Amino acid sequence: MCSVSDLFAASADEQRERLAPLADRMRPRTFDEVAGQARLVGDTGRLRRQLAQGHVPNMVIVGPPGTGKTTIARLVAAEAGMALEELSAVGAGLADVRRVVETARERLGGSGRQTVLFLDEIHRFNKAQQDALLPTVEAGAIRLVGATTENPYVSINRALLSRLVTYELEPLSREDLAGLLRRAADDTERGLAQGGSVTLADGTLDAIVERTGGDARGALTLLEAATLLAPDRVVEPAHVLEASDRGRIDYDRAGDAHYDHASAYIKSMRASQPEESLRWLAQMLVGGEDPMFIARRLVIFAAEDVGPAKPMALLLATAALETVRSVGMPECRIALAQATRYCAEAPKSRQAIEDIARHMDAVARGGTDAVPIERTNRKGAKEARAARGLPDEAH
Q1: Please, which residues have CB within 8 angstroms of residue 172's CB and are 6 or more apart in sequence?
Q2: According to the model, what pLDDT value does residue 63 have?
Q3: Residue 175 has what DSSP assignment?
Q4: DSSP state of 287
Q5: What pLDDT, in 10s, does the model give residues 184-227?
Q6: How far is it, in rounded angstroms, from Cα 395 to Cα 387?
Q7: How far apart are CA 124 and CA 137, in angstroms?
Q8: Any long-range contacts for 265-271 (C-beta under 8 Å, 24+ apart)?
């Protein structure tokens, strides 16, 4: 028999679901509803086949925003019949992880039910925090499912990454997004049609896709906002443009735009054009580029192109790299901008790269030289240095 408190809780859940944003209401409830990602969770997808065998590996799910990382993590737990605990590395710490692990142990001992710990933004844990996860992963009380938008081979410690299976998600295609948006418009239970029929005029889907790329959450959010601007519930491209808070961002982290922007960024600094360099930096950041990718290019540029002409450039670029690693977006953009302007305005010298290239080429062609005894710390080295008139520098 249900208590009054149970009835109120059920009513509250219904109200929250009804009032939730469209992107949350349309979140897939099964793998069959997931848009795209067939390679992983389709009928013959790798992850889905593993789950069908009763195996839930410790894993990290990698992909751009809005591609289904959180959804897939939740479905993994549901498919395996496991309890789900969710934390975000942005605000959580090791104490929170320990609390979840202790709860998981009690659950396992009491009911025999295992637990999935979904740790969003796992790359935001520093090295010590990631190292502290190792015993948790190995103990088996939980299954760790991490999610990140960053390159896991750079942002996650090698020791932890070696214990995780990596699943990479891709931006949704135009067809995937269009199908998702149509379902959201026609769905009378969770979608926009629960408040009356919605019509998507010609060009509306293209307008949404152009302004959101492969981000499903962004596309659904924009569709909902545009519908609120259409009094007759016929959504036109003009409503999409009016609802969007920014212009079109032509950027693809995995495509030509990624390489074209990186090239323009480097060449602008090489041409000593700080404002142009900052513009390319801004477009990469707004387009969703990995700040670590930018920071690494900046360090290389400071060593290769600025070099000994302004040695401080390498120190500043390295500091920017560490700021990206320890702070992340949005604050790290300030350090990247500072280092970008400094490198663009600095005098340029390729002496360092030319020096090491010349000597490495000589070694590759002629082989290595034997180390003279006077350059070593071996017995007799001191006498050999004295015989050649060299100072005694051995320590």
Answers
A1: 35, 36, 66, 67, 180, 214, 215, 216
A2: 87
A3: H
A4: T
A5: 999 988 899 887 889 999 999 999 988 887 789 989 999 999 99
A6: 18
A7: 18
A8: 265/294, 265/297, 265/340, 266/297, 266/301, 266/305, 268/344, 269/301, 269/305, 269/340, 269/343, 269/344, 270/301, 270/305, 270/348
pLDDT at position 270 is: 96
Distance separating alpha carbons of residues 389 and 55, to the nearest angstrom: 71
Q: Per-residue DSSP letters for 337-361?
A: HHHHHHHHHS----HHHHHHHHHHH
**Tokens 């350059």 belong to which residue?**
375
Which are the contacts of 336, defined by CB distance < 8 A and separation ≥ 6?
A: 281, 285, 291, 294, 295, 298, 320, 323, 324
Number of H helices, E strands in the chain: 20, 7
Asked if residues 130 and 34 have their Cβ atoms less than 8 Å apart, the reply is no
Choose between 309 and 6: higher pLDDT.
Answer: 309
**Which tokens belong to 30?**
């099964």
Q: Which domains, from first to last, does the chain contain?
A: 37-168 (3.40.50.300), 174-243 (1.10.8.60), 256-345 (1.20.272.10), 351-387 (no CATH)
Q: Token digits for 131? A: 């190292």
Q: Reply yes or no on whether the pLDDT at 12 is more than 70.
A: no
CB 108 within 8 A of CB 68: no
The CA-to-CA distance between both ends of the chain, in Å, stands at 84
For residue range 354-363, list pLDDT tens digits in order.
999 999 999 9
Residue 328 — very low, low, confident or very high, per pLDDT cuts 50/70/90?
confident
Angle at 338 between CA 334 and CA 343, to 5 degrees: 145
Q: Which residues, in sequence order, are CB contacts of 60 under 8 Å at separation 6+?
A: 122, 145, 146, 147, 148, 152, 156, 161, 164, 165, 166, 167
In single-letter form, the type of residue at position 289 comes to E
106, two tokens: 């009690």
Phi-psi domain of 214 (left: phi exceeds 0; alpha: psi -120 through 50; beta: other): alpha
Q: What is the pTM of this model?
A: 0.62
pLDDT of 394:
47
Average confidence (pLDDT) over 347-359: 94
What is the C-alpha to C-alpha distance for residues 93 and 125, in angstroms, rounded to an integer? 8
